[in-house]
Amino acid sequence: MQLYKDFIPTNSISYVEDLLKLYQTEIKVKSERRTRHGDFRVLSNGNCLITVNSNLNKYRFLITLIHEITHLYVYKIFKNKVKPHGIEWKNQFRILISPVLNPEIFPKTLLPLLANYFKNPKASTDSDIELVKELKSYDSFDGKNYIYELDLGKKFSIYNGKIFKLEKKLRKRYKCLEIETGKYYLFNANSEIKKYN
Known about the structure:
Layout: H1 13-22, E1 26-30, E2 38-42, E3 48-53, H2 58-78, H3 87-97, H4 111-117, H5 129-136, E4 145-146, E5 155-157, E6 163-169, E7 173-178, E8 184-188, E9 192-195
Helix pairs in contact: 2-3
């Protein structure tokens, strides 16, 4: 079983260990999941479990791990009396992440984007396309393609095999036509796609 310490920047290990001393929880590194980078759960026996995907680069893994540790802290303080990504979570996330937002842990190119994101952190870093693009630049090349890389009018498919045509870029999303049904769908800019010939 791989330990989370193998997946985060070396200079952040002691800090994360300190975060985990306050509340005991199990951390598991999981295979890639399409719908999430990580999660926090309270198990039926009352124990807490954090999972994080193994396919994340070390910077995204660290952000995700602290995101989930924040859920642990908020749960221990408020139980289920607050929203999962409400103001209490946002404030706690800012507090827990701030000690690692420095050039000893993150590349200088990421720091201004992270500072901007943490002004009002969302449920997922994927909501900030500029941050996502920069984080992806630290991935090892895996042959994946993303919708923001396509030109207007190009066709693509997604993991379920449906074929779409990229029609229009909106403010934060892309309006796409499903070829078979003629229905329009909105995609996040960093949606993983397969190029279609």
